[in-house]
Amino acid sequence: MENVTKATGARRRLLPLPVGKSFWEEVAEHCYCVDKTLLIRDLLATRAGTALFTRPRRFGKTTAMQMLKCFFEKRGADEPDVRHLFESRAIAHCDDADEWMAEQGKYPVIYLTFKDHKALTWESAQKMLRSSIGEEFTRHGEAAQALAEEEREIFLTIKSRKCDTDTLAEGLGILAKALHLHYKEPPFVLVDEYDTPVTTASTNGYYREMVNFMRIFLSGAMKDNAHVKMGVMTGVLRVAKEGMLSGLNNLNVFTVFDGPFSEYFGFTEDEVKEMARYYGREDKLPEIRSWYDGYVFGGHEVYNPWSVLYYFNAGCVAKPYWLDTSSNDIIAELVEELPFDIAEKLLSLLKGEKPVVPMTSELGPYQDIRKKKSTIYALLVSAGYLKPASDISAGMCKVEIPNKEVMQVYLTDICEKITTQSGDAESLMDVRTAFFSRDPDAFREHVERFLLESASYFDASAEGFYHGLVLGMLSFMRDVYVITSNRESGYGRFDIMLKPRAEHLDFPAVVIEVKAAKTEADDLDALAAEARRQIDEKNYAASLDAENITDIMKFGIAFFNKRAALAK
Q1: Of 76, 117, 360, 512, which one's alpha carbon is 20 to 30 angstroms from that of 368?
Q2: Cβ distance 44 to 103 under 8 Å?
Q3: Please, are residues 567 and 525 in contact by the beta-carbon 8 Å criterion?
Q4: How much of the chain exceeds pLDDT 90, in percent?
Q5: Could you give the CA distance from residue 175 to residue 128 in angstroms, rounded to a whole number?
C-alpha cells in the first residue's frame, strides 16, 4: 500500500494492515500495529493469580494473548530475540518502565487455544483436547527430565497423545511443575477462548463431561499452585458460578461491564483516528463511527477492531465484516426458544428503541442461561449484539444496538430466526413472491395470514415489534436487496428501505413506514394512509433519489393484533 506525502510529494510505502493475523510477533515486525503493550503493565500490577477477560469474538483476545506470550517467554539461544519489538512501544516508555521491562523474556510460557474446539461428540472433543494439549507438551518436551519418574511417564504419555482423558486432565499442573523445575522460574499459563469447548458441548449434548474435564484441568495448574507465576484466560462468557472456575486461586474476572482493561480489547477513538490519518482516510471517520463504533466496555466506547481493519483493507467499503466471522451457537438456540415478551423487546430495538431489561454481569451455569431473562440479555451484551445504554441499577438497564454493522448482524442472526420461529417457511416464501410481483395488496394479505398462523398472539404489541417483524420477514430478500432500517433520509428517519443490489436493478426500490394502532377502535386504513403520507412529507426517498433510483414503491402498513392494513 502506497501513499503520497503532502510536504514533499514523494511516495512513502505504508505498512500493510494485519488482516486475518493474530500472531503478534509477525504483526509487530511487519504490519501496522496498534500499541496495546500497556496491557502487560496493568496485568502485572494486578498481581492476580488468574485473570479472565471476556469479550465478543474478533475483539483482539487472541492477539493480546500472543503478545503476552511473546513478551514473557524465555527463548532459547537458537531463537530470535524479540526485545526490540517492545523497546519502541509504550511498555518501554511508561512510568516504571524498567520494572516492567525486567520481566521481558524471563519466564516459560504455556500457551493453549481452544478457539477451534467445536466437536460434535464427546469422543471427537477428547481427540481435539489430546492433540492441542499434546502439542504444547511436545513444544516443552525437554522439561520432562526435571520430573520424578512417575510424573515423567505421565508427561510422556500426554506428549504421545495416547493418554486417557483422566490422565489428560492432570496435564496442565504437571506441565507447569516440569517447566518450573526445568527453568527455575514458574511459568505463565495462557488459555485462549477457554469457554468454546463448553459452549459447544452444551449445544451438542456432552456438557457435563466437558465441564468436569475443564474443572480438573484448569484447577490443576491455577488453584494454589506454587509452580505458576500467573494465569490469563480469555473467552466470550463468564460462567464462574457453575464450578468450572470457582476453585481457581485469586481469580479476577474482567467482563464487558468492568472498567479495568477496557481499552485493550477493541480500538479506541484515538487509535482509529491515528489509523485513518496514517492511511490518509480521515474523511472516512464519520462512516467508520456509524458502522463500527458504539460498543461499551466498562463505560468506555470502543470500535470493533476486526471490522475496522477489514474496512481499511477493502478500500474503505462499509459492510458487515463481522457477520461472516462471528457465530455463537448458544445464541441461535436461545432465539429458537424465546418467549414472546423477549422477542418483542428484541424486535423493538430495530426501531431505535432502548428497552429497559433485566441485566447481570455474570451468566452462571450454561444450562441455566435459557431459564433466566437477565442472562439472555447479558449473553447478547457479552457476545456483542447489544450494548448497555445505561448503568445497571437494581438489576436493570437500558440496551440498544451498537451500530450499523450489528444492525445487519442482528437482522441475520436474531430477527430472521425470530421471524422463522413465528411462522412457517411457506408463508415467508409467499411474502417474497408477492413482493417481487410488485403487489403490495398481496403482500399485506400474506403478512396478515402470517400473523394469524403464527404461534404467538400479538395482543397490544408496540409499533417497534411490528417494525422488527416486517423487517425480519423481508430479510429473506437480502440476496436481491440491501435492507436498511431506521436511517436518516430527507427530513427524518424512515422505518424500512430496500435498495436493489447492482445485479438486480430490474427490481424496484421500496420504502415502508410501519404504524401500530393503540385500540381496536382505531381506523387501521386511516393509520396506514397516514404512514404513506409521511413517506412523501418527510421525503424518505431522498437517499434513493440521490443515487438516481427512480423505480420506487412506497407504502404504509398499520397493525392491530393480527390485523393489517396497507396504503399505496
Answers
A1: 117
A2: yes
A3: yes
A4: 54
A5: 18
Give the span between the Cα atoms of 495 and 478, in whole angstroms: 17
* Single-letter amino acid, residue 270: D
Pairing label, strands 251-254, 50-54: parallel
CA atoms within 13 A on the CB side of 124: 12
In this prediction, residue 100 carries a pLDDT of: 97
**Strands 481-485 and 295-297, bridge-based pairing:** unpaired
More confident residue, 34 or 506: 34
Handedness of CA 260, 265, 269, 271 (dihedral sign): positive
Please state, in angstroms and rounded to a whole number, the distance separating the CA atoms of residues 436 and 88.
59
The 8 Å CB, 24+ separation contacts for 162-170 are 163/130, 165/126, 165/129, 165/213, 168/126, 168/129, 168/130, 168/133, 168/213, 168/217, 169/213, 169/216, 169/217, 169/220, 170/216, 170/220
Sequence-ordered list of residues with C-beta below 8 angstroms from that of 115, at least 6 positions apart, any chain: 62, 192, 193, 196
- Helix or strand (DSSP H, E) at 529: helix 524-537
The Cα 552–Cα 33 span in angstroms is: 45
Q: Which of 458, 457, 468, 447 is nearest to 348 (CA)?
A: 468
Phi, psi angles (nearest 5°) of residue 410: -60, -45
Beta strands in 333-377 (DSSP E): 356-358
Task: Kindly state the DSSP code that residue 189 receives in the 8-state scheme.
Answer: E
CB-based burial of residue 396 (10 Å sphere; 0-12 exposed, 13-18 middle, 19+ buried)?
middle
Bridge partner residues of 488 (DSSP): 493
Three-class SS state of 227? coil
Are 190 and 22 a contacting pair, CB within 8 Å? Answer: no
Q: How far apart are CA 557 and CA 535, in angstroms?
A: 12
CA 462 to chain centre: 29
Residues paired with residue 301 on neighbouring β-strands, in sequence order: 296
Collapsed DSSP state (helix, strand, coil) of residue 137: helix
CA 566 to chain centre: 38
Cα separation of 154 and 160, whole Å?
10
If phi over 0 gives left and psi between -120 and 50 gives alpha, with beta otherwise, what is residue 490? left
pLDDT tens, 381-391? 888 889 988 88
User: 62-71, 165-174, 241-250, 509-518: which has the minimum mean pLDDT?
Assistant: 241-250
Q: How many residues does the chain have?
A: 568
- Say which residues have a Cβ less than 8 Å from residue 523's Cβ, sequence separation at least 6: none
Left if phi > 0, otherwise alpha if psi is -120 to 50, otherwise beta: which for 423?
Answer: beta
Residue indicated by cell numbers 523497546:
87
E strands present in 419-546: 481-485, 488-489, 492-493, 496-500, 509-516
List of long-range contacts for 279-283, beta carbons under 8 Å, 24+ apart? 279/1, 279/3, 279/14, 279/312, 280/3, 281/312, 281/316
58 Rama sector, left if φ>0, alpha if ψ -120 to 50, beta otherwise = left
